[in-house]
Amino acid sequence: MRNFDLVIIGTGSGNSILDPRFKDWNVAVVEKGTFGGTCLNVGCIPTKMFVHTADLAATPALSARLGVDSTLDGVRWAEIRDRIFGRIDPIAAGGREYRMHHADNANVTVYEGLGQFTSPKVLQIALNDGSTETITAEKFVLAAGSRVVVPDVPGLADVGYHTSDTIMRLDALPQRMTILGSGFVAAEFAHVFSSYGVDVTVIARSGALLRGEDEDISSRFTSLASAKWDVRLDRKTVRAERAGDSVRLHLEGPSGAEVVDSDVLLVAVGRQPNSDLLDVTAGGITTGPSGHVVVDEYQRTSVDGVYALGDISSPYELKHVANHESRIVQHNLLNPASLQASDHRFVPHAVFTSPQIASVGLTEREAIASGQRYVAATQDYAGIAYGWAMEDTTGFVKLLADPATGQLIGAHILGPQAASVIQPLIQAMSFGLGAHEMARGQYWIHPAMPEVVENALLKLVLD
Ligand SMILES: Cc1cc2nc3c(=O)[nH]c(=O)nc-3n(C[C@H](O)[C@H](O)[C@H](O)COP(=O)(O)OP(=O)(O)OC[C@H]3O[C@@H](n4cnc5c(N)ncnc54)[C@H](O)[C@@H]3O)c2cc1C
Ligand SMILES: NC(=O)c1ccc[n+]([C@@H]2O[C@H](COP(=O)([O-])OP(=O)(O)OC[C@H]3O[C@@H](n4cnc5c(N)ncnc54)[C@H](O)[C@@H]3O)[C@@H](O)[C@H]2O)c1
């Protein structure tokens, strides 16, 4: 059994831990799939590259309203797909090559295969070449991420469905696509494929899309989406079958039984942590009810010397969180006498759909549930000069603040460039800048989009 100073399992954010400071450590990296993990290969990066082209494809339909007539002549799917993966795949391959063969990594052994704990700090690896190797180490980093959940719908396994892992590599654009689910992945791919001209049906279990968002955001988005896509709310999916060339879903909803036929079915009902694949229980590592590895503020698991980061331990399932935690684990490995804690106070997210959505801090529902005193203010994009230029009629910024201190406790945006417009609000919350101080303590470029934030801040009625 080979012994290491450090074993890292997973090459998503786990792969960023190693730098020259680890040159004297004997390190093993274990990866069962494509180097670089979810974000690079099947997540954030390719999806946003598709979203950018979808935004372009959607522009002619929007610009006629402003007196600029143009037409969408076509979407060259195969060319878009091959350009995107022609850029990403070599990055993944280059990362693998670097870790496996570059002189910088002379102290690193890469094992390509599935790692599973057999006892505390003992990992058995089923290598891709069919052999098995068992390794052990003083320290471990669990960075094995999460995977797509497939719901238990009778017939689903036999009809041929896609997930976010496969949908971006379709051979050709379908005419009709059904998306089962109503979260991040559903909202982003519905925008991508509908902008390319695909007829999209979205099936939601509950009465709203993106219902984890602030209620005002979720209800505005649900009504905008329902005008563009065939949105079926409050539906239970009871069965799936093939009907000729179509995938048929049998649903039950407010008006009884119905069927939806489409050429392609995308299943997007969430992700689950890979703690079971890794058999962390055999490694003595505690998991919570959701299967996430339990960590303390220093990213330490229940076993001394074993750290975890990213989707395997984080309910946020976001790349910027995995990256932050990876920096914390890196520091704590190198500085055991002065541990740093992760900062999860203000974790933002954005949904790159149309319109974009971005959020940080408490929703109004959460603020009410917390029992704390708060004030809220809303500013429409339509009320600022750049909103006039865009003739935007649906976007808004909603802020929540503590009236006693002036500190922001939540910010929610639906509208153009929401993911960028929200950044100064994240900064203010992270550094404790008061709402009115933020509004009046700096210039706001006129007439630019962030004026929507300035005006929302000024509307907050503080003590
Ligand atoms: C479609 C999609 C779009 C997304 N878009 C965004 C976005 O825009 N912004 C954002 O912040 N987040 C986004 N995310 C989420 C983001 O991709 C994840 O939060 C992030 O990649 C998690 O990183 P990680 O390092 O924890 O895990 P991963 O990147 O998943 O890495 C885990 C690695 O571990 C390997 N592994 C797993 N089990 C084992 C084992 N037993 N043995 C060996 N290797 C193993 C896996 O093969 C994988 O390579 C998106 C996710 C999806 C699916
Ligand atoms: N822009 C981003 O940051 C981004 C983009 C994509 C994904 N992600 C990450 O990936 C994770 C996974 O995304 P996702 O959209 O798959 O999950 P999600 O948790 O965002 O949404 C899943 C949705 O499916 C619904 N659902 C669950 N079971 C169902 C069933 N049996 N039938 C119908 N609906 C069902 C849920 O109610 C929920 O609305 C997200 O949590 C997110 O953190 C992030």
Automatic annotation (TrEMBL):
Residues 4-323 form the FAD/NAD(P)-binding domain. InterPro entries: FAD/NAD-bd_sf, FAD/NAD-binding_dom, FAD/NAD-linked_Rdtase_dimer_sf, Mycothione_reductase, Pyr_nuc-diS_OxRdtase, Pyr_nucl-diS_OxRdtase_dimer, Pyr_OxRdtase_I_AS. Keywords: Disulfide bond, FAD, Flavoprotein, NADP, Oxidoreductase, Redox-active center. It holds the Pfam family Pyr_redox_dim. It comes from the Bacteria. Transmembrane segments: none annotated. Residues 347-456 form the Pyridine nucleotide-disulphide oxidoreductase dimerisation domain. Its cofactor is FAD. Its EC number is 1.8.1.15. The keyword Disulfide bond applies. GO terms for molecular function: mycothione reductase [NAD(P)H] activity. Belongs to the class-I pyridine nucleotide-disulfide oxidoreductase family. This is Mycothione reductase. It comes from Kibdelosporangium banguiense.
